Amino acid sequence: MSLFSTLSSIFVGPNQQQKSAKHGPVKPPQKLRDQRTLKHVPVEPIKLGHPSSGARPLSPTPSAPQRDDTSLRESQARAREIIVEAKDEALRLREKAEGEVRQLRQEISEKERSIDQKLSSLDQRLKALDSRDEELQKHRGELEKQEKGLEELKQSLVKKLEQAAGLSREQAKQQILENLEKKLDKEMATLIQTRENVAKEEADEKAKEILVDAMRHGATEYVTEYTVSVVKLPDEEVKGRIIGKDGRNIRAFEQATGVDIDLDDQPGQVRLSSFDPVRREIARITLEQLIKDGRIQPTRIEETVQKVTTELKKIMFEEGKRLCYAVGVYNLPSDLIQVLGRFKYRFSYGQNLIAHTLEETKIGAALAKEVGANVETVKLGCLLHDIGKVVEGEEGSHVEIGVNLLKKYNIPQVIIDCVEQHHEDVHFTSKESILVYIADAISGARPGARYENYEEYVKRLTKLEDIAKSYAQVKEAYAIQAGREVRVILNPEKSNDDDTTVLSHTIKERVEKEMTYPGTVTVTVVREIRASDVAK
């Protein structure tokens, strides 16, 4: 295609090519048309003359037909050269193509030979597999015949054995198993006993390790404190200002705070006694501020008590939050957190309730992880188990008060069960409640955890018995259960059945007014009549 394009560019000028591209087929050049019509055009004779005659002199340049012939010959020569070059190029391309074809044919023939070799080897393998399959089929048939013969022989031998032994196959099997069981009974019993002993020893050791580890993780450091607050005085004259004119200051103070003031115990100090730790703390802070201020009068006492009470509520709420965060509990109602903050000022035989609760919760959580119990339930049970001890204005044991309070705030029943059962007042219903009981016992009963002043303890028990014995109908009175109950025995000759109810209520009221005691005190009045005679 390029060859003919080259030839066209030679014979046709560039202007004519552009014209042909715009207007269609290219017409023959004007010179060629002129040559075709040249022989029909008459030629005028050329006049020769002198230049002065006015005639144009003859130009020495060749004529137009001569130039056209020269260009045509050059073009033809160029065309012949191009044709020769094209033929050479075509010959070269043909030789190259023939070489590539020969190479491809050679490669194809080599692949055909390789494929033929592989096919022949596959045929040989197939023949070998066919022959092997035939041999296997033959052997399988022989094995089936032998197996069938062995089965027949086995059946015949079993029949002969059954006839000789007088037992069927199942009966013989059962008899063998029974004999073997009897033979192994003693060995099995010995092995079981050994395993049980080992398991018990390991269980005891493991239990000890768990308890020790739980106590180690739950141990806390704190100083034993008591239920009596002491305020030191700068001098003895302050006692007079505390008492006031006709005792009006001390009466106003005791009425506003609800505590008893003892000014005669030791010189240079004042003892504030009340079982309610919050009231005692309010009284202590109030008295210290009044002594610093110097203005001790009924109006000033009431103002100071109100101010200290407000500040202490904020302190208790922060203490409650701190306790909850320390044990990892974050979803309690704010009212319960406020109640828990009262633990800061509550002591049980010298053991602070915050320290006791924190220690018990750590021990309970460690035990729950070891035995696979619900850790969160045990945490909440340990945190709330003594909440009834700091609730004001409720009657009953701290367990009953705590249960009622938790029900009021819709605490889950499984946690209420832990609180209700931590003193074994109710049978355990879950392993979590058992763990709360164990953790409480470990924290409260470990050496150094609790301590009560012996003299105060004896005074409290003696006071209980004295109150009960002050009535004429009473024969004997005994303070039992560490002062939590007073058992009153009436003289049947000086009393009647109605006195039991009246005396129990009267003694209860006097105990509430005249004594300071932990928890509750049960008053039990017994009147018994005995009649005896001797048969002769």
Strand content: 5-15%
Which spans have pLDDT < 50 for at least 5 consecutive residues?
Answer: 10-61, 216-226
Q: How confident is the prediction overall: mean pLDDT?
A: 79
Q: Helix share of residues?
A: 55-70%
Radius of gyration: 62 Å
- Total of domains: 4
**Order of secondary-structure elements:** HHHHHEHHEEHHHEEHHHHHHEEHE
* Architecture per CATH nomenclature, i.e. the level-2 architecture of the largest domain: Orthogonal Bundle
Measure the end-to-end span: 161 Å
Query: What is the global morphology?
Result: flat
Strand order of the largest sheet: 1-3-2
* Biggest sheet architecture: 3 strands, antiparallel
Structure annotation, total helices: 17
Classification by helices and strands: mainly alpha
Q: Can you walk through the features of this model?
A:
The structure is a single chain. This protein is mainly alpha-helical and 536 residues long. The protein has helices spanning 2-11, 14-23, 30-36, 64-165, 169-218, 237-243, 248-257, 277-293, 298-327, 334-340, 353-371, 375-384, 398-408, 413-420, 431-445, 454-469, 497-514; strands at residues 228-232, 260-262, 269-273, 347-348, 351-352, 474-480, 485-490, 522-526. The protein has 4 domains: 1-36, no CATH class; 70-166; 228-445, Hypothetical protein af1432, CATH 1.10.3210; 455-526, 2-Layer Sandwich (Alpha-Beta Plaits), CATH 3.30.70.
